[in-house]
Amino acid sequence: MTAPVVGIDIGGTKTAAALVDRDGRVRARREAPTPARSGPEAVLDGAARLAAGLLAAAPGPVGVGTAGTVDPATGGIRYATDSLPGWAGTPVADALADRLDRPVRVTNDVNAAALGECWAGAGRDRTHVLLVAVGTGLGGAIVRGGRVEAGARGAAGEVGHLPAPGAGRLRCGCGRHGHLEAIASGSGLAAAYTLATGTRVTGRTVADRAAAGDAVARRVVDRAGGALGAALAGLVALLDPDAVLVAGGAAGALLPAASAAYAAELPAGWAGVPLRPAALGADAVLVGAARLAMDSHDLERTSE
């Protein structure tokens, strides 16, 4: 398959579609706010509109990276948070295939980002990669031999729900306390700063204040980064990847402390496994979704 492919990124805030070539380069891109509060049909309609203008240059399948846990067998949503109300149960693959008149492959957005980074980003020289995405929440994905390890329920790699020291008073997005996401995420930074100061701010504000010299914000960020780095070191021993990538809007703030904790905690047998920042930024999900579509097309042709 030599023609470009369309990749779609459906998030709680924005939806994007892109034309991606065989080298993983984004050739054209369209983006719009996600009409999340209008329900799943409006979200799907918006995604289809963005992709429609790109299809003439891309005759093959379409790939999608979306928020939520995706059933790998059906391309439907098994579980989703309130960032996309009513999204759980939505048959994304079938619904978009009907709208676009194309085969559609769907995966979780963090899985898509990991595929993109392993194809054209910071993991392109590696075979087995663990990626964590540090944004408002904390997600993870495992890629081995160029394929996402989905697990039995499509949720393998979800590192955010690991127990984490120091997070006992902080609430995870799943509703429980003491998880890694509750401390090492944008929402975790905001919650920890509020506990310490009584001031409600966003996670980005905490990161900015830490960079500007705010001592409380600095402690919050360093504690979050330390928890993340120590957890990643333990996961390296469990999963045996040959690289760990950190992506997401809060990654830059947490990486210095995470890198120090990772180096201190990494078992000697895995001393050569690097911890790297991801490289593709906002394009990672789009590029990975396109890769998913390309791979599905190649597999179909091989089986003919």
UniProtKB/TrEMBL annotation:
Gene3D superfamilies hit by this protein: 3.30.420.40
Pfam families per record: ROK
Superkingdom, natural source: Bacteria
Coiled coil start-end: none
Species annotation: Micromonospora terminaliae
Name under which the protein is recorded: ROK family protein
InterPro entries for the chain: ATPase_NBD, ROK, ROK_cs
Recorded family membership: Belongs to the ROK (NagC/XylR) family.
